[in-house]
Amino acid sequence: MNEKKTKCKAIFSQKLAGYLLMRGFVLAESRKDYKNPEKNLFFFFESPELMEAITDYTNKQER
């Protein structure tokens, strides 16, 4: 059995998760944060494009 595991990137910000969804990235999973049940965690399939989009988002937020 040769299973290929896909890495996921955990996103803690709902705004960032929404931004990534609007950019067309696929949400792999979402669930409650067990450390802070009032918050959600969002998991996206990790790729160079995803990391670039996260960088773009954080650069825009710093301005």
Q: What portion of residues is helical?
A: 25-40%
**Looking at the chains present, what oligomeric state does this protein adopt?**
single chain
Distance between the termini: 49 Å
The averaged pLDDT comes out at 91
**How would you classify the helix and strand content by structural class?**
alpha+beta
Give the overall shape.
globular
**How are strands sequenced across the largest beta sheet?**
1-3-2
Poorly predicted regions? none
Series of H and E elements: EHEEH
Number of helices: 2
The largest β sheet comes out as:
3 strands, antiparallel
Strand tally, please? 3
Q: Please state roughly what percent of the residues sit in beta strands, choosing from under 5%, 5-15%, 15-25%, 25-35%, 35-45% or over 45%.
A: 25-35%
Radius of gyration: 13 Å
Describe the structure.
The chain is globular and about 30 Å long. The longest helix is centred in the last third of the chain and has 15 residues, at 48-62. It has helices spanning 14-22, 48-62, and strands spanning 8-11, 27-32, 40-45. By secondary structure, it is of the alpha+beta class.
Question: Helices, strands, pairings?
Answer:
Elements: E1 8-11, H1 14-22, E2 27-32, E3 40-45, H2 48-62
Antiparallel strand pairs: 1-3, 2-3
